[in-house]
Amino acid sequence: MKKWYNKLFLNSVRKAVEKFNMIEDNDNILVGISGGKDSSFLLYTLIQLRQASYLNFNITGVHIDLGFKINLSEIENFCKKNNVELIVEKTDIGNRIFNSDKNPCYLCSKLKRGALSRIALKYKFNKIALGHHSTDAVETFLLNLIYTGKLGSFKPNTYNEEKNIHVIRPLIYVNEETIEKVVELEQLPLAAGGICPVDKKTKREEMKQLLTQLKNLYPDIESKTIKALENIDTNNLWN
Ligand SMILES: Nc1ncnc2c1ncn2[C@@H]1O[C@H](COP(=O)(O)OP(=O)(O)OP(=O)(O)O)[C@@H](O)[C@H]1O
């Protein structure tokens, strides 16, 4: 690994992991691998972190196959090369979400989360790691504000007491631009095909474009929003 990666992203991942107590000794972590750049970068980052850490933790990848004919061979090779086991779980989620009257994106993410938890329970993983990054967190913040009238975003570390599973997001302080850069530099593996029919036609995509416009006016809006999520002035909230 290049030494300057510490400054580029690894220190930010360390900060998130420590601040939100994401990884402890002997953790057994299931890493959600979608086939996209974010989760590929997440896997790469966790491998680097483990190599440079005093902590001893296991990482196993899992891909929930939605039925959109995805080709995972690059990812399979990458996992083999790095001695990471990869579980591929076939599902009919792709069919189910378009045969329902519910919003397909909402349903898909719910069913995917359900499948991830089931696998974690079955194979005794105590943590599930997801590739959400700071740009995702800000987009979710805007989605909640504009479409739901709610203030907030997803949490860095959530604990499900009933299942005794933590969902961790080690990339919350890394932005999408940095991820794209490292994916390119390291030629990290990406899946081929497997494109969802509503890809790029979602409200999230709309928020992505809005954020790009806002960044033209206020270049540090992304880091400011992350700061705001951690700097809540409860005295001035109306609850
Ligand atoms: N089919 C899947 N199988 C396993 N994990 C998944 C799957 N889809 C998503 N995830 C996990 O959930 C995270 C957020 O999912 P989302 O669909 O928002 O992906 P994304 O932000 O486009 O990320 P990526 O670039 O990895 O596709 C991913 O980074 C990954 O960790």
Find the CATH topology.
Answer: Rossmann fold
Helices and strands, in order, run as HEHEEHEHHEHEEHEHH
* Strand segment tally: 8
Question: What hetero molecules are bound to the protein chains?
Answer: adenosine-5'-triphosphate
CATH class: Alpha Beta
Largest sheet features: 6 strands, mixed
Dominant shape: globular
Question: Can you describe what's shown?
Answer:
With 239 residues, this protein is an alpha/beta fold. The protein has a single domain, classed as Rossmann fold (3-Layer(aba) Sandwich). The chain has nine helices and eight strands. The chain has helices spanning 5-19, 37-51, 73-81, 93-98, 104-122, 134-148, 176-186, 203-217, 221-230, and strands at residues 28-32, 58-65, 70-71, 85-90, 127-129, 157-160, 165-168, 192-193. The strands form two sheets. A six-stranded mixed sheet has the order 4-2-1-5-7-6, sandwiched between helices. Strand 1, helix 2 and strand 2 form a beta-alpha-beta unit. The protein starts with a helix and ends in a 9-residue tail after the last helix. 31% of the residues are buried. The model has no long low-confidence stretch (mean pLDDT 95). The structure holds adenosine-5'-triphosphate.
